[in-house]
Amino acid sequence: MTATRLIDWPLVDLRRAPEGARDRQLLMGEAVQLVGIKGAWAEVSALRDGYPGYIPEAALTSGTVTHRVSARATHAYSAADFKSPERVSLSHGARLDVLSEQGRFAETPQGYVPRAHLVPLDQRETDPVSVAEILIGTPYLWGGNSAFGIDCSGLVQAGCLACGLPCPGDSGDQEGALGETLPEGAALRRGDLLFWRGHVAWVADPDTLIHANVHHMAVTYEPVQDAISRIAAQGDGPVTARKRLKGLT
């Protein structure tokens, strides 16, 4: 059995086995390949990166999507009125099918979403770090992929996908797949990536990183040298790679 389906919940854990541990998360409207059904669980792989796992079958739907949430987060309201009750909260990166426009709002199957919080799917960002900066202060969450909780590789993937760049889901795979290796001593610039064993961070400027990290339990800025020294001191070793992305304008 292989068929394309969409995520129908605001957020769902992608688990390594039914009832198992979370590996990643999938957002409203993201596409998956349905591999099979085991009881109440669907075996799927995410179209964004091929990540395999299990989600509740009830989280799947069919349909189309036309827009994505470009704000950090938004609400779908019960009417085209900001005073109406909200139906659901949606994260940056969630995908929706816009049926019509009513003033400041876009009508979607989930409710009425502020138009200012949406962009067409084919509208790409040009600076992945600016996407990461939208998520400053987001709580750290192992395996997280949303504005409600995110980890280091989720933050990197969010920036890449918003810019139309393919990106694996885990930092180890990202180190192998993303960009070109910089020579030792080469000056860093915005949009570069620093990798450690089990960790990755964006370069915001030559002296500053932005990353989701356990030390701060949030997405934060941190001086490059402070992060390098701290991570080495806590026993996680030196920087393993410095990469520069290709395909950015």
Structure description:
- Pfam families: NLPC_P60 (PF00877), SH3_16 (PF18348).
- Residues 122-246 form the NlpC/P60 domain.
- The chain is mainly beta.
- The protein folds into 3 domains: 3-61, Roll (SH3 type barrels), CATH 2.30.30; 67-120, SH3 type barrels; 128-244, endopeptidase fold (from Nostoc punctiforme).
- 14% of the residues lie in helices and 40% in strands.
- The protein is built from 4 helices and 23 strands.
- The protein has helices spanning 128-134, 152-162, 171-177, 224-233, and strands spanning 3-7, 11-15, 22-27, 31-38, 41-46, 52-56, 60-61, 67-69, 73-77, 86-91, 95-96, 100-102, 105-108, 111-114, 118-120, 145-146, 149-150, 180-181, 193-196, 199-205, 208-213, 218-223, 241-244.
- Strands 18-23-19-20-21-22 form a 6-stranded antiparallel beta sheet, sandwiched between helices. Strands 6-5-4-1-7 form a 5-stranded antiparallel beta sheet, with no helix packed on it.
- The longest helix has 11 residues, at 152-162.
- The N and C termini lie far apart (40 Å).
- The model has no long low-confidence stretch (mean pLDDT 97).
